[in-house]
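Cross-check.
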Amino acid sequence: MTNQREYVERVASTYRATVLGRIIQRSGFLTHDLNMDRPSPHNWTAEPTSVGDVVQLGLWLARNGYTECLDDAERLVRCRLLPCQITESPGLKPAVADDADEHRDLDRRVVGAYGGMHQPHWGKNPVTDITCAVLHTLTDVYRHVAVRTPAGLAVYFHLDYEDDRIRIHSQRGEGAEVTIQMKSSQNALIRLPGWTPRDSVRLLVNGTPVNPMWLGRFVYVSHELLPGTIVLRYGLPVQKLTEQ
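Predicted model, tokenized:
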């Protein structure tokens, strides 16, 4: 909020030195009890709210110039937060079959929540703050899929999205393809993930191949070519990791 760079840099340095690869694994796996990388009676499940905190830190740092953090944020959303939403329940049974409200319709109530810690928590009611926290993070990400900047409208995340300025559709197969419909004549900036080779990039504007222009980590398309449709294609290199 104050844009005092010395403090922002301290956050960025701490993020680089402690969060990535040490506290949280690249897949987004993080145990409930910090630094307990194997289950135990008191630490038997993964927990996604801290992952959401990392996503939001990465997003806020990106808004302050550290756009490389957007790679981390999108990876963790794709690999951990979205897949952990509960879409079906294996059959929950209440501890007390007394037909009280808190003991009814458990399977129906849990669907849509974000997985991790849904057991009664040491005698208290079921924990709902995890779903609230993950939803808060995903809402913040959605609000920043396309961000207005002094240079133009910047696409931060390659996620499906639409508002009165832009429509985005992302698909992935052997390679990645992002289709962006710009609804007005303004500069467009499309983030290119740092892990894909620049020579794998293919750019089409209104069906015509265009040599990419770069503005930092972003592919730049001038307002002179827009409104219209931008298609950005790039490679999906494979990286194999072993986590415990």
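The longest strand covers residues 175-182. The chain has two domains: 5-143, 146-235. Passed to J.P. for a second look.
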